[in-house]
Design a protein that fits this description.
Length: about 180
C-alpha cells in the first residue's frame, strides 16, 4: 500500500515537471532590457543610458505584453532601433520632451522592410496593446508605446515632420 502511494506521487511529480517544461517552452522570450537600452548614439557620445528601476519595470511590461507576443506571431526577427532613452540621450536625439522612450514605455522596431513592417503593424493592431502606435516615415520603422494604465489607443503616421491620426484609415495608409 505504501509503495503504491509512493509510485502514484512520483507519477504526479513527473507529470507536473513535464507540464511546467512544456509551458515554459511555449512562452518564448525574444527581447531583453539590455537590448532596449542599447544605443549607438549613447556609445558614440558617451551618454549614460542606465535605466531606473521604474524604467526597467516598464520595459519588462512592454516586452511581456507587447514585444514578445508580437514577435512570436510575426515569426521572423525584429530589430529594436531605439528603446529606452535617458533624458540626455533623448535630448541628443532631439526626441519629444514627453517621449515615452524616456520612461521605458516605448520602442521603435522594424522587421527590416516596409513590407515586413506592414505585417508587423497589423499584428500590433490586432494585439491591441498600445498607447501610441506610429507608422514612421512611410513604414521605415514602427513606434509602439504601452503604459501600465491609461493607454489612449492612438494611431498615427509620421511623415515630413508631421503627425496624422490614422485610426480610421490605417489600412490605406500603410498600404500606400
Ligand atoms: Zn519612438
Amino acid at each position: 500500500m505504501k509503495r503504491n502511494v509512493i509510485i502514484a506521487m512520483s507519477a504526479i511529480i513527473i507529470a507536473l515537471v513535464a507540464f511546467l517544461i512544456i509551458r515554459r517552452k511555449k512562452k518564448m522570450k525574444y527581447f531583453s532590457i539590455k537590448e532596449l537600452c542599447q544605443s549607438e548614439v549613447a556609445e558614440q557620445y558617451n551618454i549614460d543610458n542606465t535605466p531606473s528601476e521604474e524604467a526597467k519595470k516598464n520595459m519588462q511590461r512592454l516586452i511581456d505584453v507587447v514585444l514578445d507576443p508580437a514577435r512570436e506571431e510575426f515569426g521572423e526577427p525584429v530589430t529594436v532601433n531605439s528603446g529606452y532613452r535617458s533624458k540626455k540621450l533623448n535630448a541628443k536625439l532631439k526626441g519629444s520632451d514627453t517621449s515615452d522612450h524616456q520612461t521605458g514605455n516605448a520602442a521603435d522596431i522594424t522587421g527590416g522592410s516596409v513590407e515586413k513592417n506592414r505585417k508587423l503593424f497589423r499584428i500590433l493592431v490586432k494585439l491591441g496593446k498600445y498607447d501610441q502606435l506610429i507608422w514612421e516615415n512611410g513604414g521605415e520603422w514602427i513606434h509602439v508605446g504601452y503604459r501600465e494604465t491609461g493607454n489612449r489607443h492612438i494611431m498615427l503616421a509620421f511623415k515630413n515632420s508631421t503627425y496624422t491620426r490614422i485610426d480610421s484609415n490605417w489600412e490605406n495608409v500603410i498600404n500606400s
